[in-house]
Design a protein that fits this description.
The chain is of the alpha+beta class and 375 residues long. Helix content is 41%, strand content 23%. It has helices spanning 4-8, 13-18, 36-48, 54-63, 65-68, 81-90, 93-107, 159-169, 186-194, 208-220, 293-302, 305-316, 330-347, 355-364, 366-373, and strands at 114-127, 130-141, 146-153, 176-179, 198-203, 225-233, 236-245, 262-272, 277-287. Strand 1 and strand 2 (130-141) form a beta hairpin.
Length: 375
């Protein structure tokens, strides 16, 4: 028999961390036919290789059974899709979330600057809250394109309560936290400062008085710092102007916002070449950072990576919104699995290919799959 214990010493980070997880099945005194290592290796490897459902994971496992047996015995073969669904449905999502965050924070570089926090509704599944769609708030490292953690809520309005909980779980020292207007709350700003991070929070009409004061300050006060960028592509030209003011003596509510040092205005002018139409928009932010318009422009633009590189990938590549409804914790746990897979695919840089093509190659080429999984 192959020496699996020796082989396991060389196995990937996520399998090393799995050994620290508590197997919930042991409390039920039933026969355990598949180990945690066997289930997790099967699931992660299959999702990396293009599988998006329990049924496809089972089929992939059966087709690649000899490859899986290089690492673990799989004495009873590949778990069925029903077994996988039941396993992840019963697996405690808080326990899995802790494992997930430990894994991704080890992968992420410590010098990562911007962590974007935003929510996404998974419309194809129901949650433990009933038939309402699952809503997940994620913290996304924009430099490494890794999800560092997530919290599940029953509707979008509850992001306000989920964000502080998520911040508590993360190492945010020296990081810049960017959040849209939903997260522009005094307690959230205070929590970020307590975690030794910085914030850039968008201000909209949910903070109507604050927004009005900021607009008036930019009309009546000299700008401390200004930067301009120009981009063109896809039939459009865009000019962005970032203006920063650090003299906040006339901002009435500044004492209520812990750590606030600057207010920011981003003005965007877009020209559509085909229609020759012009449009203009203005956004406002508060920040705990010193006045540096060029850096703030970059930080604010990088926030949209959570939409373009995380939410878009989950929808288009991993078909998340078309997933079948899953029972118990299965939906939340599978969401974390897809984010783990996405992070591993992003981290593999030897092939300059799209993520769908990388997944296709991983499904065919055992050595490339091993490279992605660090096996």
């Amino acid at each position: 028999m192959q020496n699996f214990e020796a082989k396991n010493e060389e196995i990937a980070l996520f399998l090393e961390l799995i050994s620290l997880l508590k197997d919930h099945r042991r409390t039920n005194k039933g026969n355990i036919r598949h180990s945690l290592n066997e289930i997790f290796l099967l699931t992660i490897a299959a999702v990396v290789s293009g599988c998006n459902t329990w049924e496809s994971i089972e089929e992939f496992g059966n087709f690649k059974i000899e490859w899986f047996r290089k690492f673990f015995p799989y004495k009873y073969g590949i778990p069925s899709h029903d077994t996988l669904g039941a396993f992840f449905g019963a697996f405690d999502r808080e326990t899995f979330s802790t494992f997930f965050m430990e894994f991704t924070q080890r992968l992420a570089q410590k010098d990562s600057r911007v962590v974007a926090i935003d929510g996404k509704t998974v419309r194809g599944v129901a949650s433990q809250f009933g038939e309402s769609p699952l809503h997940i708030v994620s913290a996304f490292c924009t430099q490494n394109r890794l999800t560092l953690g997530q919290e599940t809520v029953n509707e979008k309005s509850n992001e306000i309560t989920a964000i502080p909980t998520l911040i508590d779980l993360l190492d945010l020292k020296n990081a810049v936290i960017t959040i849209d207007a939903m997260g522009c709350q005094k307690k959230i700003a205070e929590k970020i400062i307590q975690k030794q991070g910085h914030y850039i929070l968008q201000v909209k009409d949910n903070q109507k008085e604050l927004k009005s004061q900021i607009e008036n300050i930019f009309i009546n006060q000299i700008v401390s710092n200004e930067s301009i960028t120009r981009d063109s592509g896809h039939g459009r030209m865009e000019k962005r102007t970032c203006r920063v003011i650090d003299n906040l003596t006339v901002l009435d509510s500044k004492e209520d916002w812990v750590g606030i040092k600057t207010i920011v205005q981003i003005e965007s002018e877009v020209y559509q070449k085909k229609t020759e139409k012009k449009s203009k928009s203005t956004r406002y932010y508060i920040s705990s950072l010193e006045a540096n318009s060029k850096q703030m422009m970059d930080d604010i633009r990088s926030h949209w990576a959570i939409e373009n590189n995380l939410h878009w990938n989950l929808d288009v590549i991993f078909k998340e919104d078309f997933a079948l409804k899953r029972k118990g914790n299965s939906s939340q746990n599978f969401n974390m699995i897809t984010k783990l897979a996405l992070g591993l695919i992003e981290a593999e840089k030897t092939k300059k290919k799209s993520k769908p093509i990388k997944r296709l190659i991983a499904s065919i080429d055992d050595s490339y799959r091993e490279l992605i999984l660090n096996l």
